[in-house]
Task: structure prediction
Amino acid sequence: MLSAMADPLSTTFSALADPTRREILQRLSSGDATVGELAEPFAMSLPAISKHLTVLERAGLITKSRDGQRRHCRISVAPLQDATSWLELYRKHWESQLDSLGDYLASIHRPSTEGDHEETPS
Amino acid sequence: MLSAMADPLSTTFSALADPTRREILQRLSSGDATVGELAEPFAMSLPAISKHLTVLERAGLITKSRDGQRRHCRISVAPLQDATSWLELYRKHWESQLDSLGDYLASIHRPSTEGDHEETPS
DNA sequence: ATGGCACTTAACATAGTGGTTAATTAACCG
DNA sequence: CGGTTAATTAACCACTATGTTAAGTGCCAT
Result:
Protein backbone atom coordinates (compact mmCIF):
# COMPACT_ATOMS: atom_id res chain seq x y z
CA MET A 1 0.00 0.00 0.00
CA LEU A 2 2.65 2.46 1.00
CA SER A 3 4.67 2.81 -2.12
CA ALA A 4 7.95 4.65 -2.37
CA MET A 5 6.69 7.11 -4.93
CA ALA A 6 8.90 9.98 -3.76
CA ASP A 7 7.58 12.38 -6.40
CA PRO A 8 5.15 14.72 -4.62
CA LEU A 9 3.18 15.67 -7.70
CA SER A 10 2.72 12.03 -8.66
CA THR A 11 1.62 11.27 -5.13
CA THR A 12 -0.92 14.08 -5.23
CA PHE A 13 -2.39 13.17 -8.62
CA SER A 14 -2.45 9.52 -7.64
CA ALA A 15 -4.38 10.34 -4.47
CA LEU A 16 -6.84 12.37 -6.51
CA ALA A 17 -7.31 9.57 -9.04
CA ASP A 18 -9.89 7.83 -6.90
CA PRO A 19 -13.51 8.98 -6.73
CA THR A 20 -13.92 7.91 -3.11
CA ARG A 21 -10.96 10.01 -2.06
CA ARG A 22 -12.19 12.99 -4.06
CA GLU A 23 -15.59 12.69 -2.39
CA ILE A 24 -13.90 12.60 0.99
CA LEU A 25 -12.00 15.76 0.17
CA GLN A 26 -15.18 17.46 -0.94
CA ARG A 27 -16.85 16.45 2.26
CA LEU A 28 -13.93 17.82 4.26
CA SER A 29 -13.99 21.06 2.33
CA SER A 30 -17.20 21.91 4.15
CA GLY A 31 -15.74 21.14 7.57
CA ASP A 32 -13.71 18.69 9.62
CA ALA A 33 -15.10 15.22 10.24
CA THR A 34 -14.29 12.00 12.05
CA VAL A 35 -13.35 8.80 10.27
CA GLY A 36 -16.73 7.31 11.03
CA GLU A 37 -18.57 10.33 9.70
CA LEU A 38 -16.52 10.20 6.53
CA ALA A 39 -17.17 6.50 6.10
CA GLU A 40 -20.90 6.71 6.63
CA PRO A 41 -22.00 7.67 3.07
CA PHE A 42 -19.98 4.88 1.43
CA ALA A 43 -20.98 1.28 0.82
CA MET A 44 -17.55 0.20 1.89
CA SER A 45 -15.98 -1.26 5.02
CA LEU A 46 -14.38 1.00 7.58
CA PRO A 47 -10.87 -0.39 6.99
CA ALA A 48 -11.22 0.52 3.32
CA ILE A 49 -12.00 4.12 4.24
CA SER A 50 -9.20 4.10 6.77
CA LYS A 51 -6.80 3.12 3.99
CA HIS A 52 -8.09 5.88 1.74
CA LEU A 53 -7.49 8.33 4.56
CA THR A 54 -3.97 7.00 4.95
CA VAL A 55 -3.36 7.64 1.26
CA LEU A 56 -4.71 11.17 1.58
CA GLU A 57 -2.62 11.77 4.68
CA ARG A 58 0.58 10.50 3.08
CA ALA A 59 -0.14 12.78 0.14
CA GLY A 60 -0.41 15.65 2.60
CA LEU A 61 -4.00 16.31 1.56
CA ILE A 62 -5.43 15.79 5.03
CA THR A 63 -4.21 15.83 8.61
CA LYS A 64 -5.60 13.70 11.42
CA SER A 65 -5.74 14.62 15.07
CA ARG A 66 -6.84 12.46 17.94
CA ASP A 67 -9.71 13.49 20.18
CA GLY A 68 -10.48 10.75 22.66
CA GLN A 69 -11.60 7.74 20.68
CA ARG A 70 -12.22 9.82 17.60
CA ARG A 71 -9.88 10.99 14.89
CA HIS A 72 -10.70 14.32 13.37
CA CYS A 73 -9.71 14.84 9.76
CA ARG A 74 -8.98 18.21 8.24
CA ILE A 75 -8.31 19.09 4.64
CA SER A 76 -4.90 20.51 3.84
CA VAL A 77 -4.68 22.15 0.48
CA ALA A 78 -1.00 22.84 -0.19
CA PRO A 79 -0.59 19.81 -2.52
CA LEU A 80 -3.74 20.80 -4.38
CA GLN A 81 -2.10 24.13 -4.95
CA ASP A 82 0.96 22.49 -6.46
CA ALA A 83 -1.19 20.30 -8.67
CA THR A 84 -3.09 23.34 -9.87
CA SER A 85 0.14 25.17 -10.59
CA TRP A 86 1.26 22.33 -12.80
CA LEU A 87 -2.03 22.29 -14.66
CA GLU A 88 -2.02 26.06 -15.05
CA LEU A 89 0.92 25.68 -17.40
CA TYR A 90 -1.57 24.50 -19.97
CA ARG A 91 -4.16 27.21 -19.53
CA LYS A 92 -2.76 29.32 -22.35
CA HIS A 93 -2.66 26.19 -24.40
CA TRP A 94 -6.24 25.20 -24.01
CA GLU A 95 -7.40 28.71 -24.47
CA SER A 96 -5.78 28.69 -27.90
CA GLN A 97 -7.22 25.25 -28.63
CA LEU A 98 -10.67 26.53 -27.78
CA ASP A 99 -10.03 29.57 -29.98
CA SER A 100 -9.18 27.21 -32.79
CA LEU A 101 -12.44 25.40 -32.20
CA GLY A 102 -14.25 28.73 -32.30
CA ASP A 103 -12.57 29.62 -35.57
CA TYR A 104 -13.49 26.25 -36.96
CA LEU A 105 -17.12 26.58 -35.97
CA ALA A 106 -17.17 30.07 -37.47
CA SER A 107 -15.74 28.73 -40.70
CA ILE A 108 -18.61 26.29 -40.94
CA HIS A 109 -21.23 28.96 -40.49
CA ARG A 110 -19.84 31.45 -42.98
CA PRO A 111 -17.17 29.76 -45.04
CA SER A 112 -14.69 30.85 -47.71
CA THR A 113 -15.20 34.64 -47.58
CA GLU A 114 -11.63 35.54 -46.64
CA GLY A 115 -9.54 36.42 -43.60
CA ASP A 116 -12.59 36.97 -41.43
CA HIS A 117 -12.56 36.52 -37.67
CA GLU A 118 -16.26 36.84 -36.93
CA GLU A 119 -16.83 35.25 -33.52
CA THR A 120 -20.26 33.73 -33.95
CA PRO A 121 -21.50 33.53 -30.36
CA SER A 122 -22.90 30.01 -30.59
CA MET B 1 -3.34 -2.26 -18.67
CA LEU B 2 -6.63 -1.06 -20.01
CA SER B 3 -8.72 -0.86 -16.92
CA ALA B 4 -12.44 -0.15 -16.88
CA MET B 5 -12.12 3.03 -14.84
CA ALA B 6 -15.13 4.73 -16.46
CA ASP B 7 -14.81 7.88 -14.37
CA PRO B 8 -13.24 10.57 -16.61
CA LEU B 9 -11.77 12.63 -13.79
CA SER B 10 -10.19 9.55 -12.23
CA THR B 11 -8.79 8.59 -15.61
CA THR B 12 -7.30 12.05 -16.05
CA PHE B 13 -5.71 12.25 -12.62
CA SER B 14 -4.45 8.71 -12.95
CA ALA B 15 -2.82 9.54 -16.27
CA LEU B 16 -1.18 12.59 -14.69
CA ALA B 17 0.11 10.57 -11.74
CA ASP B 18 3.17 9.39 -13.65
CA PRO B 19 6.23 11.61 -14.14
CA THR B 20 7.04 10.11 -17.54
CA ARG B 21 3.57 10.94 -18.82
CA ARG B 22 3.72 14.44 -17.41
CA GLU B 23 7.06 14.97 -19.14
CA ILE B 24 5.55 13.74 -22.37
CA LEU B 25 2.73 16.23 -22.03
CA GLN B 26 5.18 19.03 -21.36
CA ARG B 27 7.15 18.07 -24.40
CA LEU B 28 3.97 18.06 -26.48
CA SER B 29 2.97 21.44 -25.14
CA SER B 30 5.76 22.92 -27.21
CA GLY B 31 4.68 21.15 -30.39
CA ASP B 32 3.56 17.86 -31.89
CA ALA B 33 5.99 14.95 -32.00
CA THR B 34 6.26 11.39 -33.19
CA VAL B 35 6.38 8.41 -30.85
CA GLY B 36 10.08 7.97 -31.54
CA GLU B 37 10.82 11.60 -30.79
CA LEU B 38 8.89 11.39 -27.56
CA ALA B 39 10.71 8.22 -26.54
CA GLU B 40 14.18 9.54 -27.25
CA PRO B 41 14.85 11.43 -23.96
CA PHE B 42 13.82 8.48 -21.80
CA ALA B 43 15.93 5.56 -20.65
CA MET B 44 13.06 3.26 -21.39
CA SER B 45 12.08 0.88 -24.17
CA LEU B 46 9.84 2.00 -27.00
CA PRO B 47 6.99 -0.32 -26.00
CA ALA B 48 6.98 1.26 -22.56
CA ILE B 49 6.55 4.70 -24.11
CA SER B 50 3.93 3.32 -26.44
CA LYS B 51 1.97 2.12 -23.44
CA HIS B 52 2.26 5.50 -21.75
CA LEU B 53 0.94 7.10 -24.92
CA THR B 54 -1.97 4.67 -24.94
CA VAL B 55 -2.80 5.71 -21.39
CA LEU B 56 -2.66 9.37 -22.36
CA GLU B 57 -4.78 8.72 -25.43
CA ARG B 58 -7.41 6.80 -23.50
CA ALA B 59 -7.52 9.68 -21.03
CA GLY B 60 -8.15 12.01 -23.96
CA LEU B 61 -4.98 13.96 -23.18
CA ILE B 62 -3.41 13.33 -26.56
CA THR B 63 -4.54 12.37 -30.04
CA LYS B 64 -2.51 10.33 -32.48
CA SER B 65 -2.63 10.64 -36.25
CA ARG B 66 -0.89 8.46 -38.74
CA ASP B 67 1.55 9.91 -41.22
CA GLY B 68 3.16 7.12 -43.21
CA GLN B 69 5.13 5.01 -40.80
CA ARG B 70 5.04 7.71 -38.17
CA ARG B 71 2.43 8.55 -35.61
CA HIS B 72 2.15 12.18 -34.72
CA CYS B 73 1.00 12.98 -31.23
CA ARG B 74 -0.77 16.16 -30.27
CA ILE B 75 -1.74 17.39 -26.86
CA SER B 76 -5.43 17.78 -26.17
CA VAL B 77 -6.25 19.85 -23.15
CA ALA B 78 -9.97 19.40 -22.47
CA PRO B 79 -9.41 16.85 -19.68
CA LEU B 80 -6.77 19.10 -18.11
CA GLN B 81 -9.39 21.77 -18.05
CA ASP B 82 -11.83 19.52 -16.23
CA ALA B 83 -9.14 18.54 -13.73
CA THR B 84 -8.33 22.19 -13.12
CA SER B 85 -12.00 22.99 -12.63
CA TRP B 86 -12.24 20.36 -9.96
CA LEU B 87 -9.15 21.68 -8.18
CA GLU B 88 -10.35 25.27 -8.46
CA LEU B 89 -13.09 24.39 -5.98
CA TYR B 90 -10.42 24.50 -3.30
CA ARG B 91 -8.81 27.78 -4.26
CA LYS B 92 -10.87 29.80 -1.78
CA HIS B 93 -10.03 27.17 0.78
CA TRP B 94 -6.32 27.30 0.46
CA GLU B 95 -6.33 31.04 0.36
CA SER B 96 -7.97 31.03 3.78
CA GLN B 97 -5.56 28.36 5.03
CA LEU B 98 -2.66 30.52 3.95
CA ASP B 99 -4.28 33.43 5.73
CA SER B 100 -4.41 31.31 8.87
CA LEU B 101 -0.73 30.57 8.46
CA GLY B 102 -0.10 34.29 8.18
CA ASP B 103 -2.03 34.91 11.37
CA TYR B 104 -0.11 32.17 13.10
CA LEU B 105 3.24 33.56 12.02
CA ALA B 106 2.13 36.98 13.21
CA SER B 107 1.20 35.48 16.58
CA ILE B 108 4.72 34.15 16.98
CA HIS B 109 6.24 37.54 16.44
CA ARG B 110 3.93 39.23 18.91
CA PRO B 111 2.99 36.60 21.51
CA SER B 112 1.26 36.38 24.87
CA THR B 113 -0.65 39.65 24.69
CA GLU B 114 -4.03 38.08 25.42
CA GLY B 115 -5.80 34.85 24.45
CA ASP B 116 -2.53 33.12 23.71
CA HIS B 117 -2.28 29.42 22.90
CA GLU B 118 0.72 27.34 23.85
CA GLU B 119 1.54 26.27 20.32
CA THR B 120 5.08 24.96 20.31
CA PRO B 121 5.95 24.97 16.58
CA SER B 122 7.66 21.59 16.14
C1' DA C 1 -12.72 -5.10 35.15
C1' DT C 2 -15.40 -5.74 31.67
C1' DG C 3 -17.64 -4.42 27.79
C1' DG C 4 -18.57 -1.43 23.89
C1' DC C 5 -17.02 2.07 20.64
C1' DA C 6 -13.89 4.03 17.13
C1' DC C 7 -10.50 2.97 14.63
C1' DT C 8 -6.24 0.59 12.91
C1' DT C 9 -3.48 -3.38 11.62
C1' DA C 10 -2.89 -7.97 9.70
C1' DA C 11 -3.62 -11.34 6.40
C1' DC C 12 -5.44 -12.30 2.31
C1' DA C 13 -7.67 -12.27 -2.67
C1' DT C 14 -7.79 -10.16 -6.87
C1' DA C 15 -6.68 -7.12 -10.28
C1' DG C 16 -4.01 -3.19 -12.25
C1' DT C 17 0.53 -0.86 -13.32
C1' DG C 18 4.82 -0.34 -15.43
C1' DG C 19 8.51 -2.30 -17.13
C1' DT C 20 11.03 -6.03 -20.01
C1' DT C 21 12.13 -8.83 -24.55
C1' DA C 22 10.47 -11.02 -28.65
C1' DA C 23 7.33 -11.22 -32.36
C1' DT C 24 4.24 -8.71 -35.54
C1' DT C 25 2.28 -5.29 -38.52
C1' DA C 26 2.72 -1.66 -41.77
C1' DA C 27 5.10 1.67 -44.68
C1' DC C 28 8.89 2.96 -47.32
C1' DC C 29 13.02 2.08 -50.39
C1' DG C 30 16.39 -0.15 -53.20
C1' DC D 1 10.83 -8.98 -53.84
C1' DG D 2 13.65 -8.28 -49.57
C1' DG D 3 15.33 -5.23 -46.01
C1' DT D 4 14.94 -1.32 -42.93
C1' DT D 5 12.32 1.79 -40.12
C1' DA D 6 8.37 2.95 -36.97
C1' DA D 7 5.50 1.50 -33.96
C1' DT D 8 2.30 -1.87 -31.80
C1' DT D 9 1.04 -6.36 -29.74
C1' DA D 10 2.00 -10.46 -27.02
C1' DA D 11 3.77 -12.78 -23.22
C1' DC D 12 5.68 -12.30 -19.12
C1' DC D 13 7.48 -10.31 -14.67
C1' DA D 14 7.59 -7.88 -10.08
C1' DC D 15 5.23 -4.79 -7.51
C1' DT D 16 1.28 -1.79 -6.15
C1' DA D 17 -3.64 -0.86 -5.28
C1' DT D 18 -8.08 -1.68 -3.44
C1' DG D 19 -11.13 -4.27 -1.41
C1' DT D 20 -12.46 -8.06 2.06
C1' DT D 21 -12.82 -10.26 7.06
C1' DA D 22 -10.80 -10.97 11.46
C1' DA D 23 -8.02 -9.56 15.16
C1' DG D 24 -5.84 -5.85 17.89
C1' DT D 25 -5.51 -1.18 20.28
C1' DG D 26 -6.92 2.27 23.06
C1' DC D 27 -10.40 5.25 25.10
C1' DC D 28 -14.53 5.67 27.75
C1' DA D 29 -18.52 4.03 30.54
C1' DT D 30 -20.98 1.25 33.72
